Amino acid sequence: MLSDPADEAARLSAANQADIIILSASAGESDTILNAVEGSEKVVIDATARFVMHPDWVYGFAQLSLQQEQRIALAKRITVPSVFGIGMLALIKPLIDARMISLATPLSCYCVSGYSLGGPAMAEQYKNSNSEIFKAPRQFNIPQNHTALDEVMVMTGLKQVPVFLPTVANYYSGVHMSIALPASSLQSVGTEDIKWVYAHKYNGSIIRYNRLIEHDSFISAASYMGRDSMEVYVIGNEQSIVLGTRYDNLGKGSAATAVECLNIVMGASHAKGLDL
Length: 276
Hints:
single chain; four-stranded parallel beta sheet; seven-stranded mixed beta sheet
């Protein structure tokens, strides 16, 4: 642990002594460390999602597939997925792999997140402002060009960019994401088939399928605040299906995934050090 994280010389000295480095600093500070360890055998895990589209960095979402977990274990450069990218992929990728939806399926994704999503500056706005503007949810990605969409397109091979409508609301952290899936887009399968896929894929401690959520009257976006796990679920009926996931944008959406990748590289339990 550095006594003064702002001390550049101390940061570089620590990086040179380390076998594994987790980056969570600004781009400039991170680049200084990357340049210093270039050509070494050190493992670098970037927790800021700066490199999700970089071909030389392995995508750090172990639950994507067994092959992806193996890539992480052997990688020297690992990038944590983006906050929204990991949620969309958790819902979409298993259905593509199971050939339940085609790559041409039109998808609409909606989500709400706590204000810590926007970093310290946005958090200060919400904490210190009495404006009515910050009391109500605020939608963004108005031009439909969020970088998470590029990430999802590359990782899934989708031929049509999903509609993505994220919202930030007046609570600290937690993401609730939903994807509308018209029954007409399914390839000879139904709701129970999707539940079966999720239940068999997500049966570990970090990502779980929640079969009981359909009995709830309300689904809170803050339920996973402070937790490092994620849940997925399916609600609706045979005509209108909704895929859903909840997780903390500061947990499985960023820092917890970096720790999970660290555990994989070290050969430890995936859940070591995580608050599930």
